[in-house]
């Protein structure tokens, strides 16, 4: 073949080069690989939230696979004779026994089990935070509605997956949760009892449910999750990332780092850190100590029973729902339906269809690749804050017995607080957020028009005191800034525009010498501080007007030399 | 252009590339490429992918004090990761070998309690150290490059040509003309789908066969047993106390619908007792028995506050008043806890006089219509 003999110039000389040539000669991958390596990723911390979810999922697959080698999804009743002496001689299911064995008789088993549980909590949490970032910046707008829809589906599936996994140990806590779930099935109008008998293969609890949840948990839901995640990422790569507005950023480009090596190294670093945090949590922070609960027994329950955090709001909805049962000639619709299915159903439907609702209401059907700052879309931001408030009220109500116990409040008062709070807090938060957005918008405009407050107070010859303002750009004849707001963050402090040395680092107390920071700023080739150094060298002793803040917003002083009158 | 090779004995393929080959290889000869240095080639390839390198902020020059300091920092983090990984291996495998056994028992000591935390600390530490080292590598040792990539909108050309191909194929198939074929195909698809879906029928169980939701193991003459299997007689319990009892039938103590609370009322509770209509004789003396399954979501109602005569369900905080026929007085529950009619048999032990008069547990659609 003509192509197997390498033409003279550019022929690979090194061993790696030759190997790469051999591979490409067979697979023709050099072009796609180069395109992948050159792909540009925007650089912003909030873009890493989705990655945390992805890495938690990988951790779930790895640790979960490990656990399947030891877990026995059987509801066969046996008498425990294992090494945890407090439970010896007690009847329990094989599922519960094998989970005890993972915790006490498998070397490192408890570590992996706890890591798996923590990863599940982080998985759902990072999906939620990622979703909030997408929501508040408007990243779901056309052309990304499909990916938003897939994302909401992933959230719901992740919660179901978590619930199924939580139930597998068949301990007292998870069994109680399953019992409540069975009541939710029963509450469905018309077909409720049929659904209930179909799910459990007969009356609760039956002998099938753990095996069914197991296959859902380890095969069916993960397979769907994996397929949807792959689709989510494929669409993301195809559509390219959104980005925040900024210098050089347009609707038609992406500014950032190329995949190789910068982004790849950062993403790998984040993967290791997420894994590391999960491993540390799995070893150091106990979670779901099932041996303290004991095996499931339908006649027992422990006080203060709490589900995993992401089911809490469903529980809260059931707790604050008033006892309203609809009775239609002997056919009943119980209140469980509204609390446990109605509220989450409405919530996830609104969430899933929000891009379409917004498009209908605003009439904005254009494609958007630049993100919005939450303050610039007050209605959406306020709706989001309102939804979060309603969610938090439900979430806190899900643990209202714990709150009542720890803070010594009446339990009934907590329930009433949840009922009233669910109705009146969201509108209040809507109003407050709306005002906050308008205020922030207004301040941006004000800084653009009048400049940054320098903190320098000057006395005019007339005796009047004024604060000197630093305009951000050219000013018109009235001294007003001529820059228009472009959707990007407006600098509001002098050190953000190089007009002062940067802030000294340190969260609780300074971790560097202010003098060293000053020296560093003076050595830099830009900013006022370098001017300062030059001035000190020339020894004039008086700041000249070079780089000195002008008096934006003081048109009458605009043309005058900015020298203070000497005494 | 022909796709067949006319030469005798040929299988039909030509040995020359087709005329539509094209691509950047036509624009850049190997000689031209060989004359470029690596940076130029990198930029050239990037430009072909719609990427422009706007700005590269170089790192500290190799060999400078800052470079050495940064290299040392990254190296240290990687070394720390290695050390912690080794520590994990030592703790994990060394236990029970040259270290004390890892197997935790209630009576065992500090090492066993520290085993899992040590695994977490070492593995977590190692993974975090690798992550930190990588991030520091990017921040301190890699040049900071700012690149910009073009975003392409949909191409009108692609849409028109793809549409033509699709519609041409559909037209060639003749489906739009062959109405009967399409009609049969539609009906067949429905039947085919129904065939696949009908397999799910294997899951379905009839909840109305034998009235499982309306009946429990309780029946006339079934004794009330404690969880240790012993029967109870009047006077065994203190006034104001509650005992969970089960029916004396096979598996009665594990049935989800059988648990009953046997409550002995205090004298002042009896004074304020308001039994449900028609159930004045369900109790025996100062004893009443109610289903333990909450009528809201099916949890066992467990917390009895005898001062207020209230039973609280710990799941959703429904509260029932035992002096008023276990009527719900707070929370989301809507129905009273069903009362079990009890009496005392000839040996003096508590027995049921029959099953509950209504279904126990959470409400469902046809709960008011069960026989």
UniProtKB/TrEMBL annotation, chain A:
It is a multi-pass membrane protein. Pfam families: Cytochrom_B_N_2. One of its GO terms (biological process) is respiratory electron transport chain. Keywords: Cell membrane, Electron transport, Heme, Iron, Membrane, Metal-binding, Respiratory chain, Translocase, Transmembrane, Transmembrane helix, Transport. It comes from the Bacteria. It is found in: Cell membrane. Residues 515-567 are annotated as: Disordered. The chain crosses the membrane at residues 52-71, 117-136, 148-168, 180-202, 214-237, 267-287, 336-357, 377-396, 416-437. This is Cytochrome bc1 complex cytochrome b subunit. It comes from Modestobacter muralis.
UniProtKB/TrEMBL annotation, chain B:
Keywords: 2Fe-2S, Cell membrane, Disulfide bond, Electron transport, Iron, Iron-sulfur, Membrane, Metal-binding, Oxidoreductase, Respiratory chain, Transmembrane, Transmembrane helix, Transport. It comes from the Bacteria. The keyword NAD does not apply. Residues 285-351 form the Rieske domain. It is found in: Cell membrane. Residues 1-30 are annotated as: Disordered. InterPro entries: QcrA_N, Rieske_2Fe-2S, Rieske_2Fe-2S_sf, Rieske_Fe-S_prot. CDD domains: Rieske. One of its GO terms (cellular component) is plasma membrane. It is a multi-pass membrane protein. The keyword Membrane applies. Its main location: membrane. SUPFAM superfamilies: ISP domain (SSF50022). GO terms for molecular function: 2 iron, 2 sulfur cluster binding; metal ion binding; monooxygenase activity; oxidoreductase activity, acting on paired donors, with incorporation or reduction of molecular oxygen. The chain crosses the membrane at residues 76-98, 118-138, 180-204. Iron-sulfur subunit of the cytochrome bc1 complex, an essential component of the respiratory electron transport chain required for ATP synthesis. The bc1 complex catalyzes the oxidation of menaquinol and the reduction of cytochrome c in the respiratory chain. The bc1 complex operates through a Q-cycle mechanism that couples electron transfer to generation of the proton gradient that drives ATP synthesis. Belongs to the Rieske iron-sulfur protein family. This is Cytochrome bc1 complex Rieske iron-sulfur subunit.
């Amino acid at each position: 073949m003509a192509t197997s003999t390498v033409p003279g110039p550019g022929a690979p000389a090194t061993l790696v080069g030759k190997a790469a040539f051999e591979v490409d000669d067979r697979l023709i991958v050099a072009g796609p690989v180069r395109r992948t390596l050159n792909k540009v990723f925007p650089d912003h911390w909030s873009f890493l939230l989705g990655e945390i979810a992805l890495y938690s999922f990988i951790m779930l697959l790895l640790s979960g696979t490990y656990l399947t080698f030891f877990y026995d999804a059987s509801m066969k009743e046996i008498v425990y004779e294992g090494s945890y002496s407090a439970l010896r001689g007690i009847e329990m299911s094989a599922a519960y026994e094998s989970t005890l064995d993972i915790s006490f008789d498998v070397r490192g088993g408890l570590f992996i089990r706890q890591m798996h549980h923590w990863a599940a909590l982080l998985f759902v949490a990072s999906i939620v935070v990622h979703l909030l970032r997408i929501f508040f910046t408007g990243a779901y707008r056309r052309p990304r509605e499909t990916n938003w829809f897939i994302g909401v589906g992933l959230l719901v599936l992740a919660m179901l997956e978590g619930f199924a996994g939580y139930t597998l140990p068949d301990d007292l806590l998870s069994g109680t949760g399953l019992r409540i779930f069975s009541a939710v099935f029963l509450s469905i109008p018309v077909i409720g009892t049929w659904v209930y008998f179909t799910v459990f293969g007969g009356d609760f609890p039956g002998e099938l449910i753990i095996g069914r949840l197991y296959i859902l948990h380890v095969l069916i839901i993960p397979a769907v999750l994996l397929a949807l995640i792959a689709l989510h990422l494929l669409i993301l790569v195809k559509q390219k990332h959104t980005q925040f507005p900024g210098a050089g950023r347009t609707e038609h480009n992406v500014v950032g780092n190329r995949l190789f090596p910068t982004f790849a190294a950062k993403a790998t670093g984040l993967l290791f850190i997420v894994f590391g945090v999960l491993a540390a949590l799995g070893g150091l922070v106990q979670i779901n100590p099932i041996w303290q609960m004991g095996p499931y027994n339908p006649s027992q329950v422990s006080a203060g029973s709490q589900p995993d955090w992401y089911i809490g709001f469903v529980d809260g909805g059931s707790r604050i729902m008033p006892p309203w049962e609809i009775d239609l000639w002997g056919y009943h619709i119980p209140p469980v339906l509204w609390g446990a299915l109605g509220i989450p159903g409405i919530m996830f439907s609104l969430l899933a269809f929000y891009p379409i609702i917004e498009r209908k209401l605003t009439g904005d059907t254009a494609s958007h690749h630049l993100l919005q700052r939450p303050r610039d879309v007050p209605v959406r931001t306020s709706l989001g804050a309102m939804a979060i408030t309603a969610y938090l009220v439900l979430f806190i109500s899900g643990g209202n017995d714990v709150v009542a116990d720890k803070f010594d409040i009446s339990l009934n008062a907590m329930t009433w607080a949840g009922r009233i709070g669910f109705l009146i807090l969201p509108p209040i938060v809507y109003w407050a957020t709306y005002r906050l957005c308008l205020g922030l918008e207004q301040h941006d405009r004000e800084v653009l028009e009048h400049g940054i407050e320098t903190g320098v107070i000057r006395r005019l010859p007339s005796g009047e005191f004024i604060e000197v303002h630093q305009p951000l750009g050219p000013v018109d004849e009235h001294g007003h800034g001529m820059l228009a707001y472009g959707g990007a963050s407006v600098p509001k402090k002098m050190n953000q525009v190089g007009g002062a040395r940067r802030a000294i680092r340190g969260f609780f107390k300074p971790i560097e010498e202010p003098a060293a920071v000053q020296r560093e700023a003076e050595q830099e080739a830009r900013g006022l501080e370098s001017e300062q150094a030059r001035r000190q060298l020339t020894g004039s002793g008086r700041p000249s007007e070079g780089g000195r803040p002008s008096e934006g917003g003081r048109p009458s002083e605009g043309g005058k030399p900015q020298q203070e009158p000497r005494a | 252009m022909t796709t067949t090779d006319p030469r005798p004995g040929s299988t039909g393929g030509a040995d020359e590339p087709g005329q539509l080959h094209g691509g950047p290889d036509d624009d850049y000869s190997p000689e031209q490429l060989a004359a470029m240095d690596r940076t130029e080639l990198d930029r050239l390839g990037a430009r072909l992918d719609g990427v422009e390198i706007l700005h590269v902020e170089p790192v500290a020059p190799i060999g400078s004090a800052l470079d050495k300091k940064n290299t040392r920092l990254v190296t240290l983090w990687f070394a720390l990761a290695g050390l912690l990984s080794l520590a994990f291996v030592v703790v994990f495998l060394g236990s029970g070998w040259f270290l004390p056994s890892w197997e935790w028992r209630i009576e065992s000591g500090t090492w066993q309690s520290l085993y899992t935390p040590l695994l977490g600390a070492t593995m977590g530490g190692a993974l975090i150290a690798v992550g930190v080292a990588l991030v520091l590598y990017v921040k301190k040792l890699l040049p900071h490059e700012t690149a910009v990539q073009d975003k392409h909108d949909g191409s009108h050309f692609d849409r028109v040509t793809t549409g033509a191909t699709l519609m041409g194929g559909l037209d060639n198939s003749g489906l739009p003309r062959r109405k009967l074929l399409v009609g049969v195909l539609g009906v067949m698809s429905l039947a085919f789908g129904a065939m696949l879906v009908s397999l799910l029928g294997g899951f379905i169980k009839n909840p109305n066969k034998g009235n499982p939701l309306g009946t429990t193991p309780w029946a006339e003459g079934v004794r009330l047993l404690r969880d240790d299997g012993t029967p109870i007689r009047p006077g065994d319990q203190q006034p104001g106390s509650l005992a969970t009892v089960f029916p004396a039938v096979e598996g009665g103590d594990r049935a989800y619908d059988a648990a009953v609370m046997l409550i002995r009322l205090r004298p002042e509770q009896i004074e304020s007792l308001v039994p449900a209509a028609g159930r004045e004789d369900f109790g025996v003396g100062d004893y009443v028995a109610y289903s333990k399954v909450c009528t809201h979501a099916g949890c066992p109602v467990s917390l009895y506050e005898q001062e207020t005569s209230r039973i609280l369900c710990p799941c959703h905080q429904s509260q029932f008043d035992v002096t008023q026929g276990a009527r719900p007085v707070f929370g989301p529950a809507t129905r009273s806890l069903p009362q079990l009619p009890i009496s005392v048999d000839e040996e003096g032990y508590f027995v049921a006089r029959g099953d509950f008069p209504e279904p126990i547990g959470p409400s469902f659609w046809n709960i008011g219509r069960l026989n």
